[in-house]
Write a structure and sequence with these properties.
The protein is 38% helix and 20% strand. By secondary structure, the protein is of the alpha/beta class. A hairpin with a 2-residue loop joins strand 10 and strand 11.
Length: 400
Protein backbone atom coordinates (compact mmCIF):
# COMPACT_ATOMS: atom_id res chain seq x y z
CA UNK A 1 0.00 0.00 0.00
CA UNK A 2 1.30 3.43 -0.97
CA UNK A 3 0.18 6.49 1.01
CA UNK A 4 0.67 10.07 -0.13
CA UNK A 5 1.29 12.21 2.96
CA UNK A 6 0.32 15.86 2.54
CA UNK A 7 1.36 18.77 4.75
CA UNK A 8 -0.41 21.77 3.23
CA UNK A 9 0.32 25.35 4.21
CA UNK A 10 -1.36 28.54 3.08
CA UNK A 11 0.89 28.70 0.00
CA UNK A 12 2.60 25.31 -0.07
CA UNK A 13 2.06 21.57 -0.46
CA UNK A 14 4.73 19.39 1.10
CA UNK A 15 4.40 15.71 0.24
CA UNK A 16 5.94 12.29 0.69
CA UNK A 17 4.89 9.11 -1.10
CA UNK A 18 5.53 6.19 1.25
CA UNK A 19 5.43 2.49 0.43
CA UNK A 20 3.95 1.00 3.58
CA UNK A 21 5.18 -2.52 2.82
CA UNK A 22 8.84 -1.49 2.75
CA UNK A 23 8.46 1.73 4.82
CA UNK A 24 10.38 3.45 2.04
CA UNK A 25 9.92 7.07 0.99
CA UNK A 26 9.77 6.64 -2.78
CA UNK A 27 9.32 10.34 -3.60
CA UNK A 28 9.01 13.63 -1.79
CA UNK A 29 8.92 17.33 -2.46
CA UNK A 30 7.13 20.62 -2.04
CA UNK A 31 5.00 22.88 -4.19
CA UNK A 32 5.92 26.38 -3.05
CA UNK A 33 4.62 29.93 -3.48
CA UNK A 34 1.11 28.89 -4.53
CA UNK A 35 -0.80 31.97 -5.73
CA UNK A 36 2.15 34.20 -4.85
CA UNK A 37 3.89 34.40 -8.22
CA UNK A 38 7.05 32.50 -9.09
CA UNK A 39 5.61 29.18 -7.88
CA UNK A 40 7.60 25.98 -8.36
CA UNK A 41 7.80 22.30 -7.47
CA UNK A 42 10.81 20.72 -5.80
CA UNK A 43 10.74 16.99 -6.46
CA UNK A 44 13.06 14.21 -5.32
CA UNK A 45 12.82 10.61 -6.51
CA UNK A 46 15.13 7.76 -7.54
CA UNK A 47 18.09 9.60 -6.04
CA UNK A 48 17.59 12.64 -8.27
CA UNK A 49 16.38 16.14 -7.43
CA UNK A 50 14.38 18.35 -9.76
CA UNK A 51 12.90 21.82 -9.77
CA UNK A 52 9.98 22.70 -12.04
CA UNK A 53 8.73 26.26 -12.37
CA UNK A 54 5.06 26.81 -13.14
CA UNK A 55 2.49 29.42 -12.17
CA UNK A 56 0.13 27.70 -9.72
CA UNK A 57 -2.81 29.70 -8.44
CA UNK A 58 -4.43 27.23 -6.02
CA UNK A 59 -3.88 23.97 -4.15
CA UNK A 60 -5.83 21.93 -6.72
CA UNK A 61 -3.41 22.99 -9.44
CA UNK A 62 -0.50 22.24 -7.11
CA UNK A 63 -1.89 18.77 -6.36
CA UNK A 64 -2.40 18.05 -10.07
CA UNK A 65 1.16 19.16 -10.81
CA UNK A 66 2.78 16.95 -8.19
CA UNK A 67 0.62 13.95 -9.15
CA UNK A 68 1.65 14.53 -12.77
CA UNK A 69 5.29 14.21 -11.78
CA UNK A 70 4.68 11.14 -9.61
CA UNK A 71 3.20 9.36 -12.66
CA UNK A 72 5.62 10.77 -15.27
CA UNK A 73 7.13 8.10 -17.55
CA UNK A 74 10.71 9.30 -17.00
CA UNK A 75 10.88 10.63 -13.43
CA UNK A 76 7.74 9.18 -11.87
CA UNK A 77 7.60 6.40 -9.29
CA UNK A 78 4.14 4.96 -10.00
CA UNK A 79 2.60 3.90 -13.31
CA UNK A 80 -0.77 5.40 -12.48
CA UNK A 81 -2.70 7.00 -9.64
CA UNK A 82 -4.23 3.58 -8.98
CA UNK A 83 -1.03 2.71 -7.10
CA UNK A 84 -1.66 5.51 -4.59
CA UNK A 85 -4.26 4.02 -2.29
CA UNK A 86 -4.78 6.81 0.26
CA UNK A 87 -3.95 10.37 1.27
CA UNK A 88 -2.85 11.24 4.80
CA UNK A 89 -3.10 14.90 5.83
CA UNK A 90 -1.42 16.74 8.67
CA UNK A 91 -3.92 18.91 10.55
CA UNK A 92 -2.63 20.97 13.47
CA UNK A 93 -5.68 21.55 15.65
CA UNK A 94 -9.44 21.87 15.21
CA UNK A 95 -10.38 21.44 18.86
CA UNK A 96 -10.87 18.60 21.29
CA UNK A 97 -13.53 16.87 19.16
CA UNK A 98 -10.65 15.78 16.93
CA UNK A 99 -7.77 14.14 18.75
CA UNK A 100 -8.10 10.80 16.96
CA UNK A 101 -7.30 10.45 13.25
CA UNK A 102 -10.46 10.53 11.15
CA UNK A 103 -11.66 9.75 7.64
CA UNK A 104 -12.32 13.01 5.80
CA UNK A 105 -15.81 13.50 4.35
CA UNK A 106 -17.52 16.64 3.02
CA UNK A 107 -19.32 16.89 6.37
CA UNK A 108 -16.03 16.63 8.30
CA UNK A 109 -14.47 19.30 6.09
CA UNK A 110 -17.39 21.61 6.77
CA UNK A 111 -16.90 21.10 10.51
CA UNK A 112 -13.19 21.88 10.13
CA UNK A 113 -14.12 25.17 8.45
CA UNK A 114 -16.16 26.13 11.49
CA UNK A 115 -13.16 25.51 13.73
CA UNK A 116 -10.28 27.21 11.93
CA UNK A 117 -10.01 29.68 14.83
CA UNK A 118 -8.20 26.99 16.82
CA UNK A 119 -5.28 27.23 14.38
CA UNK A 120 -5.89 30.03 11.86
CA UNK A 121 -2.31 29.97 10.56
CA UNK A 122 -2.37 26.27 9.65
CA UNK A 123 -5.86 24.80 9.24
CA UNK A 124 -7.03 26.79 6.16
CA UNK A 125 -4.08 25.40 4.17
CA UNK A 126 -4.78 21.87 5.36
CA UNK A 127 -8.42 22.21 4.26
CA UNK A 128 -7.26 23.35 0.81
CA UNK A 129 -4.99 20.30 0.60
CA UNK A 130 -7.80 17.93 1.52
CA UNK A 131 -10.21 19.57 -0.90
CA UNK A 132 -7.68 19.27 -3.71
CA UNK A 133 -7.05 15.57 -3.07
CA UNK A 134 -10.76 14.80 -2.84
CA UNK A 135 -11.48 16.72 -6.05
CA UNK A 136 -8.74 15.10 -8.14
CA UNK A 137 -8.97 11.57 -6.69
CA UNK A 138 -12.57 11.27 -5.44
CA UNK A 139 -12.29 7.50 -5.09
CA UNK A 140 -9.30 7.62 -2.71
CA UNK A 141 -9.75 7.77 1.08
CA UNK A 142 -8.38 10.85 2.83
CA UNK A 143 -7.43 10.73 6.49
CA UNK A 144 -6.77 13.72 8.77
CA UNK A 145 -4.06 13.13 11.37
CA UNK A 146 -3.89 15.72 14.13
CA UNK A 147 -0.80 17.31 15.66
CA UNK A 148 -2.57 17.33 19.00
CA UNK A 149 -3.47 13.63 18.92
CA UNK A 150 -0.64 12.41 21.15
CA UNK A 151 -1.60 14.99 23.78
CA UNK A 152 -5.07 13.53 24.28
CA UNK A 153 -3.76 11.81 27.42
CA UNK A 154 -2.79 15.02 29.26
CA UNK A 155 -4.75 15.11 32.55
CA UNK A 156 -7.43 17.75 33.07
CA UNK A 157 -5.61 19.49 35.92
CA UNK A 158 -2.69 20.04 33.52
CA UNK A 159 -4.49 20.96 30.28
CA UNK A 160 -6.80 23.52 31.93
CA UNK A 161 -5.88 27.20 32.30
CA UNK A 162 -6.51 29.15 35.51
CA UNK A 163 -9.21 31.33 33.93
CA UNK A 164 -12.99 31.35 34.50
CA UNK A 165 -14.50 27.92 33.78
CA UNK A 166 -16.94 29.33 31.22
CA UNK A 167 -14.11 29.94 28.76
CA UNK A 168 -13.41 26.23 28.67
CA UNK A 169 -17.08 25.24 28.70
CA UNK A 170 -18.05 27.60 25.87
CA UNK A 171 -14.89 28.07 23.79
CA UNK A 172 -12.80 25.02 24.77
CA UNK A 173 -9.83 27.19 25.68
CA UNK A 174 -7.22 24.79 27.08
CA UNK A 175 -3.74 23.43 26.46
CA UNK A 176 -3.69 21.43 23.22
CA UNK A 177 0.01 21.23 22.43
CA UNK A 178 1.55 20.46 19.04
CA UNK A 179 4.18 18.27 17.33
CA UNK A 180 2.32 15.25 18.66
CA UNK A 181 3.33 12.99 15.78
CA UNK A 182 6.98 13.82 16.42
CA UNK A 183 6.81 13.31 20.19
CA UNK A 184 4.97 10.02 19.63
CA UNK A 185 7.54 8.80 17.10
CA UNK A 186 10.60 9.52 19.25
CA UNK A 187 8.87 7.98 22.27
CA UNK A 188 8.46 4.71 20.37
CA UNK A 189 12.02 4.80 19.09
CA UNK A 190 13.45 5.69 22.51
CA UNK A 191 11.65 2.73 24.06
CA UNK A 192 13.24 0.44 21.47
CA UNK A 193 16.68 1.90 22.13
CA UNK A 194 16.22 1.40 25.87
CA UNK A 195 15.00 -2.17 25.33
CA UNK A 196 11.70 -1.40 27.04
CA UNK A 197 8.02 -1.12 26.18
CA UNK A 198 6.76 2.46 25.65
CA UNK A 199 4.42 2.10 28.64
CA UNK A 200 7.44 1.42 30.85
CA UNK A 201 9.38 4.62 30.13
CA UNK A 202 9.32 8.25 31.22
CA UNK A 203 11.13 10.69 28.94
CA UNK A 204 11.47 14.38 28.16
CA UNK A 205 11.07 14.86 24.42
CA UNK A 206 12.56 18.03 22.94
CA UNK A 207 11.32 18.85 19.44
CA UNK A 208 13.53 21.79 18.55
CA UNK A 209 12.91 23.12 15.06
CA UNK A 210 11.85 26.55 13.85
CA UNK A 211 8.77 25.80 15.89
CA UNK A 212 9.71 24.03 19.11
CA UNK A 213 8.02 22.21 21.95
CA UNK A 214 8.96 20.01 24.87
CA UNK A 215 6.80 17.17 26.16
CA UNK A 216 6.87 15.21 29.40
CA UNK A 217 6.07 11.61 28.48
CA UNK A 218 4.86 9.43 31.36
CA UNK A 219 4.47 5.70 30.83
CA UNK A 220 4.68 6.25 27.09
CA UNK A 221 1.91 8.88 26.99
CA UNK A 222 1.95 12.66 26.85
CA UNK A 223 1.58 14.04 30.38
CA UNK A 224 2.43 17.72 29.87
CA UNK A 225 3.65 19.82 26.98
CA UNK A 226 5.03 23.32 26.52
CA UNK A 227 2.82 24.58 23.70
CA UNK A 228 -0.65 25.60 24.75
CA UNK A 229 -3.89 26.78 23.17
CA UNK A 230 -1.73 27.78 20.20
CA UNK A 231 1.90 27.11 19.25
CA UNK A 232 2.84 30.55 20.62
CA UNK A 233 3.11 29.33 24.20
CA UNK A 234 6.17 27.57 25.58
CA UNK A 235 9.86 27.97 24.89
CA UNK A 236 11.42 30.73 22.83
CA UNK A 237 11.54 29.79 19.12
CA UNK A 238 12.95 31.11 15.84
CA UNK A 239 10.30 33.80 15.42
CA UNK A 240 7.90 33.15 18.34
CA UNK A 241 8.29 34.70 21.76
CA UNK A 242 7.12 31.68 23.74
CA UNK A 243 5.90 32.33 27.29
CA UNK A 244 5.26 36.01 27.99
CA UNK A 245 3.21 38.00 30.50
CA UNK A 246 -0.17 38.56 28.74
CA UNK A 247 -0.27 42.11 30.10
CA UNK A 248 2.60 42.97 27.73
CA UNK A 249 0.11 42.79 24.84
CA UNK A 250 -2.17 45.43 26.35
CA UNK A 251 0.84 47.59 27.25
CA UNK A 252 2.20 47.61 23.69
CA UNK A 253 -1.27 48.26 22.27
CA UNK A 254 -1.65 51.30 24.50
CA UNK A 255 1.84 52.65 23.86
CA UNK A 256 1.93 52.17 20.08
CA UNK A 257 -1.75 52.24 19.09
CA UNK A 258 -1.59 48.70 17.73
CA UNK A 259 -4.43 46.22 17.68
CA UNK A 260 -4.28 42.98 19.66
CA UNK A 261 -4.02 41.06 16.38
CA UNK A 262 -1.03 43.13 15.30
CA UNK A 263 0.82 42.47 18.54
CA UNK A 264 0.03 38.75 18.49
CA UNK A 265 1.29 38.63 14.90
CA UNK A 266 4.49 40.30 16.08
CA UNK A 267 4.88 37.71 18.85
CA UNK A 268 4.43 34.94 16.28
CA UNK A 269 6.44 36.26 13.35
CA UNK A 270 8.93 38.87 14.57
CA UNK A 271 10.00 37.70 18.02
CA UNK A 272 12.07 34.85 19.43
CA UNK A 273 15.62 34.55 18.13
CA UNK A 274 14.79 36.80 15.18
CA UNK A 275 13.47 39.60 17.37
CA UNK A 276 16.20 39.51 20.00
CA UNK A 277 19.08 39.49 17.50
CA UNK A 278 17.39 42.12 15.36
CA UNK A 279 19.43 41.63 12.18
CA UNK A 280 17.22 39.13 10.37
CA UNK A 281 19.17 36.17 11.78
CA UNK A 282 17.13 33.26 13.15
CA UNK A 283 18.75 30.13 11.70
CA UNK A 284 20.57 28.14 14.39
CA UNK A 285 23.47 27.38 12.02
CA UNK A 286 24.12 31.10 11.58
CA UNK A 287 23.71 31.71 15.29
CA UNK A 288 26.26 29.10 16.41
CA UNK A 289 28.75 30.53 13.90
CA UNK A 290 28.36 34.03 15.34
CA UNK A 291 28.39 33.49 19.10
CA UNK A 292 31.22 36.02 19.42
CA UNK A 293 28.59 38.70 18.73
CA UNK A 294 27.20 39.74 22.15
CA UNK A 295 23.64 40.11 20.86
CA UNK A 296 23.70 36.71 19.17
CA UNK A 297 25.16 35.15 22.32
CA UNK A 298 22.42 36.78 24.40
CA UNK A 299 19.70 35.30 22.17
CA UNK A 300 21.35 31.86 22.25
CA UNK A 301 21.61 31.97 26.05
CA UNK A 302 17.96 33.00 26.38
CA UNK A 303 16.90 30.17 24.08
CA UNK A 304 18.92 27.54 25.95
CA UNK A 305 17.82 28.79 29.38
CA UNK A 306 14.16 28.40 28.52
CA UNK A 307 14.68 24.89 27.17
CA UNK A 308 16.67 23.90 30.26
CA UNK A 309 13.95 25.32 32.51
CA UNK A 310 11.28 23.18 30.85
CA UNK A 311 13.44 20.05 30.91
CA UNK A 312 14.14 20.54 34.62
CA UNK A 313 10.48 21.18 35.41
CA UNK A 314 9.35 18.11 33.52
CA UNK A 315 11.98 15.95 35.18
CA UNK A 316 10.42 17.03 38.47
CA UNK A 317 6.86 16.44 37.25
CA UNK A 318 7.80 12.95 36.10
CA UNK A 319 9.71 12.13 39.27
CA UNK A 320 12.80 11.50 37.15
CA UNK A 321 13.17 10.26 33.60
CA UNK A 322 14.73 7.39 31.74
CA UNK A 323 15.92 9.64 28.93
CA UNK A 324 16.02 13.07 27.33
CA UNK A 325 15.52 13.03 23.57
CA UNK A 326 16.57 15.76 21.14
CA UNK A 327 14.87 15.82 17.74
CA UNK A 328 13.97 18.10 14.78
CA UNK A 329 16.38 20.43 12.97
CA UNK A 330 18.03 22.31 15.85
CA UNK A 331 17.80 19.39 18.25
CA UNK A 332 19.35 16.92 15.83
CA UNK A 333 22.06 19.10 14.28
CA UNK A 334 23.32 21.51 16.96
CA UNK A 335 25.77 19.98 19.48
CA UNK A 336 26.40 23.41 21.01
CA UNK A 337 22.72 23.66 21.88
CA UNK A 338 22.55 20.18 23.42
CA UNK A 339 25.64 20.91 25.53
CA UNK A 340 24.31 24.24 26.79
CA UNK A 341 20.90 22.78 27.61
CA UNK A 342 22.21 19.81 29.61
CA UNK A 343 25.03 21.65 31.38
CA UNK A 344 24.33 21.90 35.10
CA UNK A 345 21.82 19.06 35.17
CA UNK A 346 24.31 16.54 36.54
CA UNK A 347 22.56 16.69 39.92
CA UNK A 348 19.53 15.18 38.16
CA UNK A 349 21.61 12.32 36.80
CA UNK A 350 22.09 13.91 33.37
CA UNK A 351 25.68 13.54 32.11
CA UNK A 352 26.48 14.46 28.52
CA UNK A 353 29.45 12.84 26.79
CA UNK A 354 31.07 15.78 24.99
CA UNK A 355 32.90 13.66 22.42
CA UNK A 356 29.82 11.65 21.51
CA UNK A 357 27.76 14.83 21.35
CA UNK A 358 30.18 16.63 19.06
CA UNK A 359 30.66 13.66 16.76
CA UNK A 360 27.00 12.62 16.50
CA UNK A 361 26.37 11.77 12.83
CA UNK A 362 23.51 13.48 11.00
CA UNK A 363 20.41 11.44 10.37
CA UNK A 364 21.30 8.69 12.85
CA UNK A 365 19.89 7.61 16.18
CA UNK A 366 22.70 8.02 18.67
CA UNK A 367 23.31 7.87 22.43
CA UNK A 368 25.30 10.92 23.56
CA UNK A 369 25.34 10.48 27.35
CA UNK A 370 28.14 9.06 29.46
CA UNK A 371 27.92 5.40 30.57
CA UNK A 372 27.54 6.67 34.14
CA UNK A 373 24.56 8.90 33.29
CA UNK A 374 21.42 7.75 35.08
CA UNK A 375 19.36 9.61 32.49
CA UNK A 376 20.22 8.60 28.94
CA UNK A 377 20.50 11.33 26.32
CA UNK A 378 19.55 10.48 22.74
CA UNK A 379 19.49 12.23 19.41
CA UNK A 380 16.65 10.67 17.40
CA UNK A 381 15.73 12.01 13.95
CA UNK A 382 11.98 12.44 13.82
CA UNK A 383 9.70 11.04 11.12
CA UNK A 384 6.31 12.71 11.37
CA UNK A 385 5.33 11.68 7.84
CA UNK A 386 5.75 8.00 8.67
CA UNK A 387 3.48 8.40 11.70
CA UNK A 388 0.86 10.13 9.51
CA UNK A 389 1.10 7.32 6.95
CA UNK A 390 0.76 4.65 9.64
CA UNK A 391 -2.21 6.44 11.19
CA UNK A 392 -3.80 6.68 7.75
CA UNK A 393 -3.52 2.93 7.19
CA UNK A 394 -4.74 2.19 10.72
CA UNK A 395 -7.77 4.46 10.34
CA UNK A 396 -8.77 2.93 7.01
CA UNK A 397 -8.35 -0.61 8.32
CA UNK A 398 -10.50 0.19 11.36
CA UNK A 399 -13.35 1.12 9.04
CA UNK A 400 -13.34 -2.25 7.27
Amino acid sequence: MKVLVINAGSSSLKFQLIDMQTKEVVAKGNVEKINEGGSFLKYKAKGQEYKFEKEIVNHSEGMEFLLEKLTDEKIGVVKSLDEIEAFGHRVVNVGEDYFDSTLVTPEILEDFRLKVDFSPLHVPGAICGMEAAMKICPDKPNVAVFDIGFHKSIPEHIFKYAIPQKYYDVYKIRRYGAHGTSHYYVTQRCADLLGKKPEDINIVSCHLGSGASITAVKNGKSFDTSMGFTPLEGIMMNTRSGDIDPAVIEYICNKEGKTVSEVVRMLNKQSGLLGVIGTGMADMRDITENLSDPNVKMAFDMYCHRIKKYISAYMGVLGGADAIVFTAGCGEHTPELREAVTEGLEFMGVELDHDLNNSAPRGKEVLISKPSSKVKIFVIPTDEEMVIAEETVKTINNLK
